[in-house]
Amino acid sequence: MTKRMILPLLFGLIGCAILVSLGTWQVKRLAWKEAMLSEIDARIGAEPVALPDQLDADVDRFLPVTATGTFGADRLRVLVSQKQVGAGYRIISPFMTQGRTILVDRGVLPIADDLPAVPTGDVTVTGNLHWPDEVDSYTPEPDEARDIWFARDVDRMASKLGTEHVLLILRNANPATPEITPLPVSRTGIPNDHLSYAITWFSLAVIWFGMTVFLLWRIRQRTV
């Protein structure tokens, strides 16, 4: 090996090591994400419990809950788009149960449909508690004139409707409101791209190694 080959060799080995380490890190992240998603699936599908007295957004996220009470007359509409379905509105209503009032995401109403009448009498709702993180610097302010919101901002909606800062996303209701289709909590929307990232890094490592070998071969050919 000539002195001219030492620097390219070191550069190639260090580059390969970095790329392989990044790929290995993504593999570890993949295992962590799959375990987290499995835990979320198990939690979402667990047996529903009564609405706890004290709630914590971190501890009780996705907790299955069942409650009986009445819907209030007020409601908020949140613009949503579903693949292969189109645009609609999530209907967020106040729900009074056991002396408490919480928010209930009742599901999606087609954008062209009129809002159905509020159910009268007691309704038993079952769903999952959630505190969606949907608001960022690009989210428009609610259009009060047209009664349209663009994200489920639990704190702001609770203040608007005078409820606890708690949102139950409906899975089913008895009696149901057939005009509104429940959109239950699921793992959909939680990204899990770590496998593709790992393949990308490992592929780059192979390419880097091949380029290093080729460069060393060229250097060697020139010195022969």
Automatic annotation (TrEMBL):
An example Gene Ontology CC term for this record: plasma membrane
Keywords: Cell membrane, Membrane, Transmembrane, Transmembrane helix
Compartments in which it is found: Cell membrane; Membrane
InterPro entries for this protein: Surf1/Shy1, Surf1/Surf4
Membrane-traversing stretches: 195-217
Membrane association type: Multi-pass membrane protein
Signal peptide: none
Family of this protein: Belongs to the SURF1 family.
Protein name: SURF1-like protein
Organism of this sequence: Litoreibacter janthinus
Lineage of producing organism: Bacteria, Pseudomonadati, Pseudomonadota, Alphaproteobacteria, Rhodobacterales
